[in-house]
Amino acid sequence: MPSFRLRCCAALLAMAGACGQGAHAQATRLDDSSSPRPQINSDFRNAQMLDPNTISLPFGHVEYRLATAAYVGKQARIYYVIPLAVAGLRSPMGMQVQWRSSGLFQGGMGRPGDRVLVWSGVVRAPWITESFDLQLRLDQRQLQMGLGGSLRFESYFEIETQP
């Protein structure tokens, strides 16, 4: 007969698996196709050196227009997702994305592959428009771009509804 400790560990693992499956099953990518500039492209002319290996690269205001009509009246969480693969970057540890929100969403930071909670509440409108003031911190040793190359990625938003 399995020990009490073994049964507890098995039960905890089963619960963790069930929670993880439920959370990811409800996550849906929000349509942001009407956003003016969804893809982020680097312009190193505005870069500032923070130390011998780190560059700060401001992107300015990026506006997102999220289609939320299917979720009006529902309790939800919205996440900002930074893609794991970033063209021009060797490792996710070589880039940190920081953002300040223009109002509705929370500011924050993350690395490629991160999914960061930016909003929680009841969806009240068919569209949510939000702007982020984006800035990157880059480790120059992790860049792999040729002459004239650029760093490109497209972050997106996911929504999870709650009962």
Automatic annotation (TrEMBL):
Residues 1-25 form the signal peptide. It comes from the Bacteria. Keywords: Signal. This is DUF3124 domain-containing protein. It comes from Comamonas squillarum.
